[in-house]
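Reopening this one. Same input as before:
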Amino acid sequence: MAKRLPLKQRYAALTRDVHWDPTYVDPAKVFPYTSFEGIKIHDWSKWEDPFRLTVDAYHKYQAEKDKRLYAVLDGFAQSQGHLTLSDARYLNAMKLFLQGVTPLEYTAHRQFAFLARYLDGAGPRFAALCQSIDELRHAQTEIHTLAGYNRYYPGFHSWSKMHDRVWYLSVPKSFFDDAVSAGPFEFLIAISFSFEYLLTNLLFVPFMSGASFNGDLPSMTFGFSAQSDESRHMTLGLEAIKFLLEQDEANVPIIQEWIDKWFWRGYRLAGLVAAMMDYMLPRKVMSWKEAFELYFEEQMLGGLFPDLAFYGIEPPRHVAQAVEEKEIVSHQVYWVLYQFSFAAAFTTTVPEPEEMAWLSQQYPDTFDRYYAPLWERARAVQDGGGRFFFQGLPQLCQVCQIPMAFTEPGDPSTICQRHSEFRGERFDFCSDGCKWIFDREPEKYVQAWLPVHQIYQGNCGGPTVPEVLAWYGVGDGDNGEYAGSPEQRNWRLWHEPATVEG
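Same output, byte for byte:
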């Protein structure tokens, strides 16, 4: 009886050994997309696959995880687990996740499927195929998990339409649109390295911990289920960058610029996570500042980039500004969301007194001086029967598409505004980082679909707020102030002790 092959040999037989070099067709026509970016690859066989999963092992492993996840979902639904959450306010973070992150998983699935066909080497093709399946599974499990809340809470119903139309969701959408419209190697640096390796822990680890702390067992479970895949994705990102750097010295400056660009784009996108962590979780896990120091400063600036210095790679351009902004970015982003939540698919409210005290403790150098006064004025307006909503449309950054709310480096009291001229037209930016990205390839960013511009041009349903909200797919109870909302009223009714008539 023939002996079973060791895993490494089985893996090679099912991946590397099925590759062949075309003879009667020009290889450049078979793989037409890996030459125009300037990256030089001399030997695709040097690609190392850290996770040597065969197809059968991969699907068995994923099926076991799905069984555990769906058992949790069924148990949570049958026991009315949605009533055990810390507070209905918590679900605003999940609405933002469903609307903003889940469609990105599907976009990543499609692009990695593209790479699984068009990368020249057998090793990276198979790695891309596995990640494509991972991303599709993530999208499906996130949809199934959060669909349970759609039966009881507003804001979960039209997330796919919203992702393509709503103003704040153009921030994550534009990030991935930028990545998938780049070349295959830039996409790997953008998603597999800069997003997955550098920044994914800032999203998934606080997100899963936040779900656990706030009684959301299903979201915690799918988060951990996805995070076990993310470990593979992060390793793919690290392998991709080392492989490219080792192939040719001429690749180094190209990759350095990609790291500079995609770190800043990813960091700006992570501002939504910062707001979620500091303001949207009724029970706090850690502050954005703590998470940034642990998962980026210590692990990446203190660990990864000293290793990459061997290849000539430096820490990302503008990283010093990101480190400085850890004190202020969550407050600035949530202040924008608070002012414009009448045009969003979630609700916002003024932080509770104990939350204000926590923010003051976490940000002793900035919160009391710059942001507590804003919230105190907003609470005074609310106590007087009003609600502070910004009356008008904000200017957006041409690159990251976030309203111009960020401040000058070193001066949290002055709004930062940069601009460039291209073909006789002025374009505005929220930071030196976004301006630098635009100036590298302006032809790309002048095509940006900016929601505010589209509203002014009459492309978003009509000129009035109700018409725009209808076009967005935002319905009654989805948006505005949390206090007094249908969501809060139902939450209180569900938790009031039942009265028994004698």
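So the earlier flakiness isn't reproducible anymore. For the record, The domain at 54-494 is CATH 1.10.620.20 (Ribonucleotide Reductase, subunit A).
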